[in-house]
Amino acid sequence: SSMTYLDKGVVFIGSCVSDSQLIQLNKKPVDNAYFTVLETYANIGPIIDMELFDAKSQDWPRMITCSGCDKWGSLRVLTNGIEINEICVLPFSRFKSAFPLKLSMDCNGKDDSLMFSNFEQSVILEQQGDGFALCKAECFIRDASTLYVGNVVYDQVLQISKREIRLIRVKDLKTICSFNCKSAPIFSCYCNGWQFVISSKNTVTLFSI
């Protein structure tokens, strides 16, 4: 977004979509490059979506953001408003939504997983120590954008995409029931934990869980 020459071959490169850098220009190539990165300055913007993640292994909540654009996109975790740590980089871009989940029966009411969705697919990360790993459970809709996913009554998880609704049991991560909406795609939805409503074309439908 901006480039400023400082002095003695030192240049500041500022970015509004990724981290900014301070580089040193070289007269001769070093590692096949005519510059050396002296310092990198973390940038959490632009923030596409964010969630307050109340982790079971922490005494205080953390804020996790979908930061950056396109190939520079990453997940950032903010603690105490001071430190910014990149916890993982996923092989797809354009995150549009993030949802905290409780997928363990012994999580004591704390979030232990996150689902991220773009316009084409959804991915779930499980907390492992201070980091995250991909969740491989087959019960979730992965090949579509997720409109809503969250914990609901009776230790279950509800996931809604444009063309399918799934109710998943947390105990063994098995699909209890599913509802196909291919003939009338869902445009919007809302859930209060024990009921949910969807709208498709000229129809609004209320479900009780």
TrEMBL record:
Gene3D superfamilies: YVTN repeat-like/Quinoprotein amine dehydrogenase. Pfam families: Beta-prop_RSE1_2nd (PF23726). InterPro entries: Beta-prop_RSE1/DDB1/CPSF1_2nd, RSE1/DDB1/CFT1, WD40/YVTN_repeat-like_dom_sf. It comes from the Eukaryota. Residues 86-206 form the RSE1/DDB1/CPSF1 second beta-propeller domain. This is DNA damage-binding protein 1 (Trinotate prediction).
